[in-house]
Amino acid sequence: MPMRQVRLLTGSMLLLFAAILVFVAADGLTMPMRLALMVFATTLVCWTIFDLPETPVALAGALALGATGTVSEEAVFAALGNDVVWLMIGAFVIASVLQASGLVERLTFRMLAPFRRVSSLFWAVTLTIFVTAFIIPSTSARAAIFMPVFLGLTAAIDRPDVTRALALLFPSVILLSAAASLTGAGAHLVAADFIRRSGGDTPDFLEWALLAAPFGLITSLIACGLILRFFLGAEDRNAAFEARERTERQPLRAPERTLLAVTALIVLALATSSLHGVALPFVALIGALVMASEKISGMPFRKALKTVEWNLLLFLAGTLVIGEALMSTGTAALLADRAIGMLSLVGKPPAWLVILFTVIVATFAHIVVASRTARATVLIPALALPLAGLGVDPAVLIMTATLGSGFCQTLMVSAKPVALFGGMEPPAFTPSDLMRLAAMLLVPFVGFLTLVAAFIWPHVGLGD
């Protein structure tokens, strides 16, 4: 039987089972709860089994919830005006200006110019990519920006094994470092919204960085160390090379210095929003208007708007509506209560074990659900919130599930940066190389996230 028919049959059976469970077998549910659960189950099956595009599925789910009265029509349309969406619009405009200017590429080459040994270059590349997580909101955009840097470095070094190792390093650090920033991935904004709806204090740009940046930095450095140790021999690691002369080494021109200064001011304003009181979306939009001014960057605002990933924003809005339905109807709370009832039969496990279980499920979720934001939308109400009833703060588990879902580099199709660097001709690395790296990175990733979530976050105010 063709795989397409297998998927269709499997998905249809799962949807039928879900419908029977939700509308017939389950008791004590109101009709809005049943509809919210059915839409949630349907979107999950469409994303995983049917492998349908994420955005149309999310929008269809949101429209179904509005049409059935599970959420109000106003709530559906309000999602498009959610502050999360506007924050991302501003961030995308800023990123498009920086990408078009070539400033990030030039600065990267200037920062890497002093390094003449492969091993030191790898560490410098890792730190450079990490910093950009606070400026550029999309992992795909960062991958596109760093592709010329990768090509320039591999041409200068001209060693096949180093080319393979760099091709693994760039997407790995791009994906892992995204955890550091609130705007590093749409999933983080979904998590912040769930924290707010569950009664916690929503972390702002600086608070998110203080909580998650150490995790993003250390896991990025671990990935770099593993690649150096297991994908390069001693000769390659210690190899010296002479970087080619590039125009990027020339002094920055006045417009570029202006762009750099404006970018620094935007990041500073985002980080200090709790002090000056201007909301993050307003800061991002003001920065976007300034950056996309022809007098500042030479790029018309309308041109910058064309580069915004509207598909991602619509997907984000759709998932926000689904999350709203699960919370406002009381479905998430009911799932939590019933999960607690079942789990209480086997006793109350320690908090660290609950967190470890959450991390493991979230880490492997990318094999089933391809989109990072979709994983957060599924994992938070279905995993994090129910398990919070075992005595772990909901905000801690929401952050844990979200950062755990950022592990998405096992397969070529797991993330766009991996596909971009892995899809070159000739291929820079093989699927087995990727699987080998993921297997080595898995244990330190799971272990360190569990350590941070169980023993550090509760003591630094998360969820208080």
Automatic annotation (TrEMBL):
Q: What keywords are annotated for this sequence in UniProt?
A: Membrane, Transmembrane, Transmembrane helix, Transport
- Membrane-topology descriptor: Multi-pass membrane protein
| TM helices/strands, residue ranges | 35-52, 59-80, 86-109, 121-145, 165-187, 208-232, 259-292, 312-336, 351-369, 376-392, 434-457
Domain Citrate transporter-like: where? 46-404
Where is this protein localized, as stated in its record? Membrane
One GO cellular component, as annotated = plasma membrane
Main location per UniProt?
Answer: membrane
Pfam families of this UniProt entry? CitMHS (PF03600)
A Gene Ontology molecular function term of the record: transmembrane transporter activity
Domain of life per record: Bacteria
Q: What is this protein called?
A: Anion permease
